[in-house]
Amino acid sequence: MLNDYFEKMIEAVFRNFGHLNKFMGDGLMALFGALRDDDFQEEHAVQAALDMRRALGELQDRWAKSESRARDAMASLRIGIGVNTGLAIVGNIGSKQRMEFTAIGDSINLAARLEQATPGRGVDILVSEYTYVATRSRFPFEPAGEISLKGKSES
User: Fold this and answer.
1) How far apart, in whole angstroms, are the C-alpha atoms of residue 56 and residue 53?
2) Structure pTM?
3) How many CB atoms lie within 10 A of CB 109?
4) What is the per-residue pLDDT for 142?
5) Could you write out the DSSP letters of every residue in 36-76?
6) What phi-psi label fits residue 94: left (phi over 0), alpha (psi between -120 and 50 degrees) or beta?
7) What whole-number distance in Å separates Cα of residue 4 and Cα of residue 17?
8) Dist. CA 107–CA 112, nearest whole Å
9) Rounded average pLDDT over 110-115
10) Segment 4-24 mean pLDDT
């Protein structure tokens, strides 16, 4: 079931011109506009998040009808997505023994903190003010208010 989940999440990322950066436990990190210039990277990232939400709902409907012992756990699975826009260092990072293509920087950390804040806000997607400003004419948003995030002095 987890493989089904990842399949649908990755499809949403790729369909919206994103790049799967890595799996992190039962989650994943995706980058938009990192491997090629994309004047619409924020729109693509938000659309991917919405597509992921919809895909999870479809999977939950299918899992609810299955006979698997993990059915109840998977049918109640919740998603949390943080979307942020900003600069990052992107490339092969590591050592001679092991290199990994990834992105690092404050903008990446902010996206992770937004994802971590979703349960406390009772939502599944949070976007930063930066992403909101870039996409507000394309998507309907609901204000989440100011959020104090770990490691950030400003809300």
Assistant:
1) 5
2) 0.92
3) 17
4) 94
5) S--TTHHHHHHHHHHHHHHHHHHHHHHHHTS--TTHHHHHT
6) left
7) 20
8) 9
9) 95
10) 96
